[in-house]
Amino acid sequence: MAERYDRAVTIYSPDGHLLQVEYAQEAVRRGSTVVGLRTNNAIVLGVEKRSVGELQEERMVRKICMLDDHVALTFSGLTADARILVSRAQMESQSHRLNFEKPVTVEYITRYIAQLKQNYTQSNGRRPFGLSCLVGGFDEDGTPHLFQTEPSGIYYEWRANTTGRSSQPVRDYMEKHAEEILASADEPTAIKHIVRTLVGVSSLTASQMDVAVLKFRQPLRMIDRKVLVDLVRTVRSELEAEAEASRLKRVP
């Protein structure tokens, strides 16, 4: 039945679905896991990093991009689609500076990305962008924001969120520890929560993740690999201790 209604993005199925958009959402669900956390003075982004070949330049495998000096984006889904979307968003950010002599707000550039995605869900000869984005940054007054956009063109603001292949268990974990995670007022604690989330749910190693921190009027900073190794070791020890304590409680 689906084959009759998924030939074009502008054709609805009888139950009101745009199947091409749902296929794009499936591409996101198969993509790398990404996590974002907003604190009072920082945006922390963590991404699952695909293994890099022995002969491949590691610097070319980046999933955290700057749209402007104060806005960063990470994504899950089709990297080729992300390259085009990031390029368009960067040009819009620079155009806004030129025309209005001030930087874009985080919501403005998020709305621009969402509008661009939505346009591709109602035009013949196009297909939806197969990616979901987390956009984090600061407004001129220093207020931090974290938004998510979907392939359908919808967007929401979050204090912490995730997308990608392990998004559901990661979101369940974050909601379970919401009070602790959202109380992260300082940068080291927020970074540790991001690492703990990726390790605790996705079982990633330090070489399989990238973590970046963006602060007001400061350049994006990638967390050093050695720091990540130490954090992963600490988190694994804590998780093992918690599992042992939970096991002992169950023993009569």
From TrEMBL:
PROSITE patterns: PROTEASOME_ALPHA_1, PROTEASOME_ALPHA_2
Keywords, ordered alphabetically: Cytoplasm, Nucleus, Proteasome
Domain of life per record: Eukaryota
Cellular localisation: Cytoplasm; Nucleus
Biological role: The proteasome is a multicatalytic proteinase complex which is characterized by its ability to cleave peptides with Arg, Phe, Tyr, Leu, and Glu adjacent to the leaving group at neutral or slightly basic pH. The proteasome has an ATP-dependent proteolytic activity.
Protein's organism: Drosophila suzukii
Proteasome alpha-type subunits domain segment(s): 5-27
Matching PANTHER family: PROTEASOME SUBUNIT ALPHA/BETA
Record-linked Pfam families: Proteasome, Proteasome_A_N
Protein name: Proteasome subunit alpha type
Family: Belongs to the peptidase T1A family.
GO cellular component, one term: nucleus
A Gene Ontology biological process term: ubiquitin-dependent protein catabolic process
